[in-house]
Amino acid sequence: MLKLLVIEDHALVREGLVRLLAQIEVRVQVVDRPDFESALTLLDGEDEFDLILLDLALPGIDGFAGLDILRRQYPSIPVAVVSAFDDVPTVTRVMNLGASGFIPKAFSGEALLAAVRQVLAGNIFRPEGAYSGARLDDATPVPPCQGTVRPEDVGLTDRQAQVLALMVRGLSNREIAEQLGLSEGTVKIHATAVFKALGVGSRTQALVAVTRYGIDFAKVF
Predict the structure, then answer these.
(1) Three-state DSSP class for 9?
(2) DSSP helix/strand/coil, 28
(3) DSSP track, 113-127
(4) What is the residue extent of each domain of the chain?
(5) CATH 1.10.10.10 fits 151-213, yes or no
(6) Does the domain spanning 2-138 belong to CATH 3.40.50.2300?
């Protein structure tokens, strides 16, 4: 069975995409989430999706940062961006970040399904030109990652920074413990301290915070 994940905050658009994608073939399951954090929580426990369709203008996270997180954390799942911001610089940046496709929201339902089928077939889909003229630069998204914040700048100790860096790489607590020569219980204590320093309550929220703040782990190890 084909399994798709739609990440879109506008309910009307999300429901429309779900109904449309349900037509792509007889056996298809379309799961939807209204924000990036809940989508990551879902993927943490259930990552067997054939395609993720990602809105680029989600609340609480820069769209490019969200795409980057998905490509790093779930490299085996193709991601197609579905966005109203379809100017050439935005499309180019999305493709350079590893998206398998960029589908303008100005597309008709038939054109959108055709684009999705191309991506599912293993092809890269990129539209020709701009369709709406809307630019992401004209919106007011969360500032993108600049990679200029050191772990100590957000109150992390050296060991906490190492634990967080390995979280970002997708390692489990057990794998982090093995990597650092610690017990799994000690890793959990460090992880709790990391969450407190970042003002978050979960690993998923910590990953989003890393991208939003632009934490640089270059000198952690």
Answers:
(1) coil
(2) strand
(3) HHHHHHHHTT--B--
(4) 2-138, 151-213
(5) yes
(6) yes
Q: How far apart are CA 95 and CA 32, in angstroms?
A: 23
pLDDT digits (tens, 9 = 90+) for 130-175: 554 444 444 444 444 444 678 888 889 999 999 999 998 888 999 9
Residues sharing a CB contact under 8 Å with residue 145, sequence separation 6 or more, in sequence order:
62, 65, 68, 211, 212, 213, 214
Q: Which residue has 């906490």 as its token pair?
A: 160
**How many C-beta atoms lie closer than 10 Å to residue 162's C-beta?**
21
Directed axis angle between helix 63-73 and helix 36-45, to 10°? 10
- Write down the pTM of the prediction: 0.67
Is the distance from CB of 199 to CB of 156 less than 8 angstroms? no
The partner residues of 52 in beta bridges, in order of sequence, read 5, 79
**Model pLDDT for residues 169-213, shown as the tens digit of each residue:** 888 999 999 999 999 999 999 999 999 888 888 888 888 878 777
Paired with 4 in beta bridges are 30, 51
Backbone angles phi, psi at 125, to 5 degrees: -110, 125
Question: What is the rounded distance in angstroms from the CA atom of residue 81 to the CA atom of residue 52?
Answer: 8
C-alpha 193/C-alpha 22 separation (Å) is 43
Burial of 1 (0-12, 13-18, 19+ CB in 10 A): exposed
Concatenated DSSP letters for 193-215? HHHHHHT-SSHHHHHHHHHHHTB
Q: What's the pLDDT at 152?
A: 87
